[in-house]
Write a structure and sequence with these properties.
- The complex is a heterodimer of chains A (about 110) and B (about 110).
- Chain A is mainly beta.
- Helix content of chain A is about 0%, strand content about 60%.
- Chain A has strands spanning about 5, 10-15, 20-25, 30-35, 45-50, 55, 60-65, 70-75, 85-90, 95-100, 105-110.
- In chain A, strand 9 (about 85-90) and strand 10 (about 95-100) form a beta hairpin.
- The termini of chain A are far apart.
- Chain B is mostly beta strands.
- Chain B is about 0% helix and about 55% strand.
- Chain B has strands at about 5, 10-15, 20-25, 30-35, 45-50, 55, 65-70, 75-80, 85-95, 100-105, 110-114.
- In chain B, strands 2, 4, 5, 6, 9, 10 and 11 form a seven-stranded mixed beta sheet that branches. A four-stranded antiparallel beta sheet of chain B has the order 1-3-8-7, with no helix packed on it.
- The radius of gyration of chain B is 13 Å and the shape is globular.
- Classes of the chains: A mainly beta (about 110), B mainly beta (about 110).
């Protein structure tokens, strides 16, 4: 099977930088994704890494190290609206299914 | 372009009742999914359909059935609802290539089983 670990909560102040880590276990790795979910809302796609390195999309960046089975989401210039849950998800296994982590609740303080 | 739509948005059932959750997408995606999300948890895959005419079990399929009616529509049926099925249900469709793996989610159905 597949499993992921990420911190349950992170708190930071407006304007700061925060990093949310994710470690995973899977057989047959295809990619690591990140999703954002506001309270009461649906998950929305943020970023995807299939190869090692950094992917940048505006204020958000995502990093992957396949040899370490590790990735992180970096959020810069934090804004209040970034307060949400962030999920990492790994695609892998024989069925190439997407498995989600339990999520990290990010709270941005003024 | 509505993306992924789901009906109903809210539903309350009594134990043993049945219902069907509807999902449709207008992005011409081949793959569609049903997830459930319990409070404070991630999403767990119930069933998925890689293409029209095919369905496969996910992590938590027991108590559910699905139908891929056509390329646009993917429904989830609870034949005999149980309190353990109280959850938020999300439908998703996806485009997957070497460069992207993006799932587009519907707004969710909040189901309570009494």
């Amino acid at each position: 099977g597949q499993s992921l670990e990420q911190p349950s909560e992170v708190t930071a102040v407006e304007g700061a930088i925060v990093q949310i880590n994710c470690t995973y276990q899977t057989s047959g790795f295809y990619g690591l994704s990140w999703y954002q979910q506001h309270d009461g809302g649906a998950p929305t796609f943020l970023s995807y890494n299939a190869l090692d390195g950094l992917e940048e999309t505006g204020r958000f960046s995502s990093f992957l190290s396949r040899s370490d089975s590790y990735g992180y989401l970096l959020l810069q210039e934090l804004q209040m609206k970034d307060s949400a849950s962030y999920f990492c998800a790994v695609r892998g296994g024989s069925a190439r299914q997407l498995t989600f982590g339990s999520g990290t609740q990010l709270t941005v303080l003024p | 372009n509505a993306g992924v739509t789901q009906t109903p948005k809210f539903q309350v059932l009594k134990t043993g009742q049945s219902m069907t959750l509807q999902c449709a997408q207008d992005m011409n995606h081949n793959s569609m999914y049903w997830y459930r999300q319990d409070p404070g948890m991630g999403l767990r895959l119930i069933y998925y359909s890689a293409s029209e005419g095919t369905t496969d079990k996910g992590e938590v399929p027991n108590g559910y059935n699905v139908s891929r009616l056509n390329k646009r529509e993917f429904s989830l049926r609870l034949e005999s609802a149980a309190p353990s099925q109280t959850s938020v249900y999300f439908c998703a469709s996806s485009e997957t290539s070497g460069r992207t793996d993006t799932q587009y989610f519907g707004p969710g159905t909040r189901l309570t089983v009494l």
